[in-house]
Amino acid sequence: MLEDTIVAISTPYGKSGIGVVRISGKDSLKIGKKMFSPLKKDAEFAPNCLVLGRVNLGDASDLGFMVYFKEPHSYTGEDTVEFQCHGGIVVTQKIVEKAISLGAKLANPGEFSKRAFLNGKMSLDQAEGVIDTINAESESELRASSSLQKGILTKTVQELQEKLTDLMSEIEVNLDYPEHDIEYATKEKIKAETEKIYQKITDLLSTQKQGRLIKNGINIAIIGKTNVGKSSLLNALIGSEQAIVTDIEGTTRDIVIGTTEYSGIRFNFLDTAGIRKTDDKVENIGIQKAKQALNESDIVLLVIDASKDLDEQDKENLEITKNKKRIVVLNKIDLKQKVNLSGEIIKISAKQNINIEDLKKKIYDLSLDGCVTNSSIILTNTRHVEILKEAKILIEATLKTIMDNSLDLVSLDIRQVYEKLGEITGETTNEKVIDKIFSKFCLGK
Amino acid sequence: MKEYDVIVVGSGHAGVESALALARLNNSTLLTTLNLDSISFLACNPSIGGTAKGQLVSEIDALGGEMGKVSDRNILQLRLLNTGKGVAVQSLRAQVDKHAYHSDMKSVLENQKNLDIMQCEVVEILACDGKVKGIKTAFGEEILAKAVVVCTGVYLESKIIIGEYTKDQGPNGFVNSHGLSSSLRDLGFDILRFKTGTPARVLKSSIDYSKFECQKGDDGIQTFSFLTKKQPKNVAVCYLGYTNEKTHQIIRNNLDRAPMFSGMIKGVGPRYCPSIEDKVVRFADKTRHQIFLEPEDKYGNEIYVQGFSSSMPRDVQEEMYKSVDGFENVKILRNAYAIEYDCISSLDLLPTLESKKVQNLFFAGQINGTSGYEEAAAQGLIAGINANNKLKNKEPLILRRDQAYIGVLIDDLVTKGTNEPYRMMTSRAEYRLLLRQDNADIRLTQIGRDVGLVDDYRYKKFCNKLKKIDKVYKILSQKLRASDVRNLLQQKQESTQILPQTARELLKRNSVSIFDIDQKFNLFKGIDKNILKYVETEIKYEGYLKRQEILINQMKKNEEIKLNQDFDYSKIKGLRLEARQKLNLHKPLTLGQASRISGVSPADISVLTVYLSLNKRKSKRS
Question: pTM for the complete prediction?
Answer without folding.
Answer: 0.80
